[in-house]
Structures are given as structure tokens and as C-alpha cells.
Amino acid sequence: MPSDSDSTPEPGLGAVRDEDIVDVLPEDLDLAAASAHYLLPNNNRRRIPAALYGVLAIGAAALWATQRDTSAIVNDGFGWFAIIVGAFSIYGFVAGRTLLIDETDALTTANSTVGFAIGHASAQMVWRGWLSRPVWRLLAYSTENPPAKRALVVVDGISGDVVEWFAEDNPEDWARSGAGNGDGAAGTERS
Predict the structure, then answer these.
(1) Is the pTM of this model over 0.70?
(2) Where in the chain is the domain with CATH 3.10.450?
(3) pLDDT tens figures, 145-167
């Protein structure tokens, strides 16, 4: 049985060296190639399915009202369907309020609230309460390296008011993880 060292490479494969092989991000994932600013879809897009549900509810109610006594297909289920889907449609219109505050505005509001200059931050749009009021939830760190403070701020997505916030000294042990020392190496634990 021949060993791997005895086999001869196929033509053209022996010319590839290890240093010629590099990792490259696909174009759609390359952030440096992105030229357009990303815009988060607005919360009012929820009104599109709400309108479709409303049309279905009206159609079912009309069939139930006009055909329930004369048709073998239309029964009281059409009435119940119209009520349930109609209620869901109304909820969709109420919950689909227009988002007036974007993540940049929410970050500006958070920066003026927490009492320190914000460095790294992360924003997430979430919904609050039974009526699904859109709010921004921001996790923010101070500008020092490593960050000395951190905060969690919730900003209303319609009015821009701060719903709640909390700031504290950063309890994370950055020295153990190697962050902030510039080499990216993990720290070692000493006993």
C-alpha cells in the first residue's frame, strides 16, 4: 500500500502554496464594501397584515350576514371567524404605531441621561406592554479602555422619553480576559 508521501500530486495542485490561500468575506458580508446606511423597518409595517385581516373579516361577516340561511356552506363559523380575525385586525392597527425615534436618536437620549460619555453601545427595538408600544433598549459602555461604567437605558420609540434606566460601575473583570491590554491574549489566573 503506497503512503501519502509516495503519491504524486495532480497537475496544477502542487503549485498552490499555503500562503496563497486566504480567507475572504463574501461581498454581501463585507462591511467595508457597504455604501448604504441600513434603515430598520418601521413598526407601522404591522398595519399591512392588519389591513388584510380586516378585509378577510369584512368578507366573512358579509357572507355570514347574507348567506347563512340560504347556503349549505356558510354557517355560524363565518360569524365567529369575522369576530376573531376582526379583533386581531384592530389589534394590529393599534400595535402598528409609527416609530418616530430611530436608534441614533435613542443613543443621543441615552448619552444625555446616563451621566457619562458613551463609547460602545448596542440598540435593540422591542415592544412593551399589551399594546406593543415600540421602545429602544440600549446597553452602553463608557469611553475608557476598558470601560469603567455601563448602563441599560430604555427609550420610548414614539415620544423619545426615557422609560427607565440604570447605570453602574462596570463589574466585569477585564484584566482576566486580556481586554484593554492591546494584545488580545487571555489573562492567566493567579492563586
Answers:
(1) no
(2) 103-177
(3) 888 889 999 999 999 899 999 98
